[in-house]
Amino acid sequence: MTSPLSPEQLERLARKRAGAKLGWYVHATVYVLVNLVFFGMSHYGFGSRPWSVFPLLGWGLGLTLHGISVFMLGTGGGLRERLVQKERERLQRQQGPGGTP
User: Fold this and answer.
1) pLDDT tens digits, residue range 6-15?
2) What letters, b where the CB count within 10 A reaches 16 and e where it falls short, cover 32-55?
3) How far is CA 44 from CA 11, 49, 58, in A?
4) Are 35 and 55 in contact, with CB atoms under 8 Å apart?
5) Which of 6, 24, 63, 83 has the fewest CB atoms below 10 angstroms from its CB?
6) Contact at 8 Å (CB) between 4 and 22?
């Protein structure tokens, strides 16, 4: 079990997490808007083939990885916290009572 965080630590962590999530939301919004423009250009303007799928897929992969890093692997993310807790428990078992690892 982890020790409780001080109010300052909680505030810092909350701001860091909120900033990371806000960054992803901005990224997703720009992704949608830019790809709508690309779609319009591809289908109603430039080129005879629908080329807009290529930036959509490539950038979509980047957006997905960004989301995974923010919501699953980032500081305070569920997966990361579970892995840290398991590692902490393993190290405590290895250390034993009053010893070093």
Assistant:
1) 888 888 888 8
2) eeebeebbeebeeeeeeeeebeee
3) 49, 10, 22
4) yes
5) 6
6) no
